[in-house]
Fold Putative pterin-4-alpha-carbinolamine dehydratase.
Amino acid sequence: MAVQPLAPEEIEDRLAGLPGWSVDEDRLTRTYRLGSHIAAAALVMHIARVQDELDHHSDLTLGYHSVTVSVHTHSVGGKVTELDVELARRVSDLAPAHGAS
Ligand SMILES: C[C@H](O)[C@H](O)[C@H]1CNC2=NC(N)=NC(=O)C2=N1
């Protein structure tokens, strides 16, 4: 079955398992803080590799000591789907190894 937008209660349920993440204007988002700009850039690269693996891509904003991840699903008109939740879970799993918080 094709991916479908999640209902508001489904999004709340998924957010309960994704500490630090929130939904803003139909985007699943989190900002990570890192110890240096290079550490932040390395996190961006790691996330980019996972995104190509999943064939699902967030917008990544590289700051001085920060990375902001913002994702929705283009193919359903920019709503939050299970694909976004899966990417958020993958990012949550890999971020601590970068010292991200
Ligand atoms: C052809 C390719 O599978 C699609 O364009 C993928 C790529 N990455 C994507 N990323 C996101 N966030 N939403 C999509 O609908 C999407 N579609």
User: Anything to note?
Assistant: Strands lie at 22-24, 27-33, 59-62, 66-71. The domain at 8-98 is CATH 3.30.1360.20 (Gyrase A; domain 2). The mean pLDDT is 98. Residues 55-57, 71, 73-75 surround H2B (CB under 6 Å).
